[in-house]
Every structure is written in C-alpha cells, then in structure tokens.
Write a structure and sequence with these properties.
99 residues, single chain
C-alpha cells in the first residue's frame, strides 16, 4: 500500500519550516529579537517542524511497514504541535500580548 500521508506532511512541514526560518532571520536583521520572545517561540516551532520533516522522510524511505506507521504517527504529532505553536504565536501577536 503506497504511503500518501507522509508526502503531504513532508511538503507542508518544509514550507512552514522555511517560513519560520524567514521570520527568525527577519527578526534578527531588524534587531527586534532583542525586545521580543517571538523568535524563541518560532525557533521551538522550527525544531518541531525539523523533527516532523525527518520522521516523515524516514517514513517514506523505510521498507518496514511497522516502522513506516510508527514514524508517520510521530511525525503527525510533531506537525500538530507545531501548528498549535504557530496558532498560539499568532494569537499572542494579534492581541498584542507579546511586546
């Protein structure tokens, strides 16, 4: 049975990872990172997305179906936690709770 879920997770997670790295770089270039904790939150989210990408990639490359499902399940969890983290950061920014 072909694995279609990991391919979607891998592409989406890498796109979100690129966006997080862009945000972190922009904050550091503008010296806004010294007065805000957004870059710390975004860095944690980027680490979650890196783990998600790696596990999703391992899920695609393994020939063992038990490992494939295990890697995919953990990649899903990392992906959901990263999405929740992005949601929390956006809420904090929207309501000016992060100065």
């Amino acid at each position: 049975m072909p694995n279609n879920t990991s391919q979607h997770i891998l592409g989406t997670a890498t796109n979100l990872l690129g966006f997080c790295l862009f945000v972190i770089t922009s904050l550091h270039i503008s010296n806004f990172s010294e007065t805000s904790i957004i870059d710390e939150f975004t860095s944690i989210i980027a680490l979650l997305l890196i783990c998600c990408c790696l596990l999703s990639f391992f899920s695609l490359k393994t020939t063992n179906s038990k490992r494939e499902k295990y890697f995919e399940k953990i990649a899903d969890l990392f992906f959901v936690f990263a999405l929740i983290g992005i949601f929390i950061v956006l809420i904090l920014i929207t309501f000016n709770l992060i100065k």
